[in-house]
Amino acid sequence: MAEIIDDEFLVEQFSRGDETAFERIVERYSAEVAALANRLLGWPGEVEDVTQDIFLAAFLGLKKFRCDCSLRTWLFTITINKCRTNRYKRWLRLRRFSQEIDKVSFSSACEEKYVDADEFKHVRRAVAALPAKYREPVVLRYLQELGTDETSRILGISKNTLNVRLSRARKRLREDLAELIES
Amino acid sequence: MTEDEIKILLQQADKTAAGAAPVRVNLSAIRRRAGRKNMITLVAPLAAAAVLMVALSISALMFRTTEPTQEQEKIALLETRIKQLQARTDAALGLIQEVLDEERRRSRLDELQAQLASIPDPLEEIREQVDKTAFILVYQADRLYNELNQTDSAVENYNRVIKLFPENRWAKVARQRLSEIENRKI
Q: Shortest Cα distance from A40 to chain B (angstroms)?
């Protein structure tokens, strides 16, 4: 609660033109935002550019923030949108060179299937391969451990839709990780 | 595999993954980019408007420089056509006016002729009147002589008829009556 009040105070200070308030917001949430971005983008490890973009968007939009939700929820919403954009741009880049990429990815995937012994890597790959509408709820609920309310709010969907998507995501993961589960 | 088991598996996989590298959010870069974005949001509409204005003015100039000769030719051609049409229309209207005048004159002439035809011949009228007067005088003279025995007055009337209308048939009758009176006297 104190954190929320403090957030509101920081937002108000920023609205009045005090940019040091934004520095404190960055200090407070950059790690969490980076972790979420890392998970949403499939654990690339390097998420500095995306995080920079997220906080740039926050800097530009913070004056319009009306404290309808917590600052963390708002930042996570921006993170979700930025990660979607990032993935879409990456997909466009890949599609441009689709033939070569397909060959490369196919060969590497085959190779990795036998060479990669790391089971968790397999799990992460399964999560990363999920469509965005299933991957995002999984990351927010199971990895960020957000509540149903906050998750549905961040994704802009109803709780029922969230539960349905989670259920379908689990089903897919079970299918994808069947070998792993059996062994 | 239950939901919790999946959750645990995912969390373990997440923990073993390379975490996000320590993020250093460059605030000065953010400020710079924000300033640039703000500038773009301010300048972009103005620039777009300026480009639009330039494009419009260029297109207007192009239309002015390339089309005037064609346009003028077209206008001149249209003007001559309009003049020709006007002349033809005027001629047609004049012709129509003439025909109408002619018809009006003819109808007036017909009316006058009809009126003229309806007027009786005055000479005939006078002749009729003369005949009538002569008859009345003879008739009166006859009455004076036959009914009133005024022979002098009757003779006077007969003589008047002969004098006034010598060529009339009743003058002939009057002469007969006078000779009859003369014969009776004898």
A: 11
| Residue with tokens 């009743």, as numbered in its chain | B170
Question: What CA–CA distance (Å, rounded) separates B30 from B69?
Answer: 58
pLDDT at position A108 is 44
Residues A22 and A12 in one domain: yes
Structure tokens at A11: 């937002």
Do A118 and A59 fall into the same domain? Answer: no
Final residue belonging to a domain, choices A79, A95, A111: A95
- pLDDT digit string, tens, across residues A89-114: 888 888 776 655 455 444 444 444 43
Residue A133 tokens, joined: 């509408």
Q: Which residues of B49-67 are buried (b: 16+ CB within 10 A; e: fewer)?
A: eeeeeeeeeeeeeeeeeee
Q: Which residues of A touch B10 (CB under 8 A)?
A: 123, 127, 138, 142-143, 173
Sign of the alpha-carbon dihedral angle for B61, B62, B65, B71? negative
Helical residues (DSSP H) of A41-97, grouped into ranges: 48-61, 71-96
Report if pTM > 0.80: no
| Other Cβ atoms within 10 Å of A77 Cβ, number | 15
Q: Which residue of chain B is at minimal alpha-carbon distance from A45? A: B20
Nearest beta carbon to residue B10 from set A30, A37, A142: A142
pLDDT at position A118 is: 67
Residue of A53, A54, A59 to mutate, interface with B, max B Cβ within 10 Å:
A59
The number of beta carbons lying within 10 Å of the beta carbon of residue B37 is 14
Cβ proximity of A176 and A126 under 8 Å: yes
Domain end, chosen from A68, A95, A122, is at A95
Residue-wise pLDDT tens digits, B60-104: 777 665 556 788 888 889 999 999 999 999 999 999 999 999 999
